[in-house]
Amino acid sequence: MDSGLYAACTALMARTDALDTIANNMANSSTSGFRQRHTTFSSVLAGSGQQLNSQLNVVTNSYGLLGNSKLDLQAGSLQHTGNELDLGIDGPGFFQVQTTTGATAYTRNGSFQVSTAGQLVTSTGDPVMGASGPINIPKGAVVTVSADGTVSTDGAIAGKLKVVEFTPTADPQSLGATYYTVPQKDVVDSPLSQVRQGSLEGSNVNPVSSVVELINAQRAMEGMRHALTMIDSEIDKTAAQDIPRVS
Prior knowledge:
This protein is α+β, with helices and mostly antiparallel strands. It has three helices and 19 strands. The protein has two domains: 2-74 and 205-246, no CATH class; 78-201, no CATH class.
């Protein structure tokens, strides 16, 4: 009976983690460049070295675990803003930025601005990297960005945006907000990606699908809670009635 209790507990925790992931996706459905995550589950059979004589034993001793959560790299839709410093990417590429800790991060959120130091930076103030380092923008200059990422100020070339993509086997991890990181070996140039000036990419979260996922996760959680209640009641009954009779 305690195996059933553990199985229900682990399943409940797994669904709770999945619920947190879905809720985070929904909360960022309007965040530019946000990438949703999808959860997967795995099942572990307790006492796999022992003979389980019935299907009931198999079900009772099957532990549902949160296997993994994977970033969905499907592109969101490009939305025209008209702002010369709003940049979207048509293709699989990511902008490369340098965080305040000196680490390299990647983002699809092209809501850029010019810092007081005259550098092209993200909305959180991190330098946007070009092929030769940060890109300097003179104060008051007219900025134009070509499809290949070349940045010009008042007609003079200021640099070229570093646009990269991830290898098929890469497993990008979130650094918070719309920043992601992968090992350097999984980063390659993205020649097929094109930069669209005056546009921002929306989140790739589908609100309708997310609501369905949320409802299913909540139902699964309620089922596990109900199972826990039943098992706990059966344990109490055994402790109150059967054990005194044996003694």
